[in-house]
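Here is a typical sample entry:
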Amino acid sequence: MKTMSIVVSGLVFLMAIGARADEAADYKKLYEEQKQRNDDLEKRIALLEEKDKAAPYVKTEDVPESTRGFLKQTEISGYVSASYTYNFNQPADRLNNGRLYDSNHNEFMLNKLTLILQKPVEYNAFDWQAGYFVETIFGQDAVSTRAKSPDVGSGLFNLGDHGDLEQAYLQFNIPFGNGLKVMLGKCATPIGWELVENEQNANWSCGYQWTFIEPFTHTGLHLAYKISDEWEANVYINQGWDTVKDNNDSKSFIGRVAYNPNDNWSFTLIGYGGPEQSDNRNDAGNAVPGAN
């Protein structure tokens, strides 16, 4: 009876060893399977990381280096402006007298699709810089903002009935004093508080002063100097009011001094002068004696 007990105990012991061996085999199998899954996951992550590094839609080798360089240093922006205006006087001609951008009664208007490309230039006392600014608008507002030319048949800067190259100029910083900015081309006027881009004004509809007695743009040379953090001086030499090709042999001038003590206050003194009427040689159809 004692001998039988020893044999039974031995069998139990051997079964326990066998069970542990089976468990060890299972753990090893589980380890190998888990390791395989980890390896597969690492490979997938590596592939995703490599994919993120590559250009998703365009092969960079297909884009010229000059184009990539231009896009890297150019800021591209824009906006869309639309409106609806109703006049309770209900004018028979459906025109709102004395209005500009909001001139159509009981009509929806696509005022502007504005696109801007620019490489800004900052005042710098030590480094030369070069940049540019281009702003085009397409929409019903372009009829009002487009600059006039004596030879209207030339198509000068004509982007169609509802297009306008509103601004286009080169810009440089000359390391003179605190920095001297030089701009050459067509730019928005500095005269007045309201902007040609009426979407940036406090009121979307513009005042009579801006509509009737202020220009939109000037074509010529602009010098700007930062006297200090608060003071800035500007000089403009240009063709005149809203003209690209000059209508006489004389130039017009704008002088501006601005004082900005803080973000809440600004003061500006500005003056403008120059012959603006057309002479016989450049605009015979509208010639005025003594235009120059």
The longest helix spans residues 2-53. Strands lie at 75-85, 107-119, 129-138, 163-174, 180-188, 217-226, 231-238, 252-262, 265-273. Confidence is low (pLDDT under 50) at residues 2-8. Residues 101 and 141 are 6 Å apart (CA to CA).
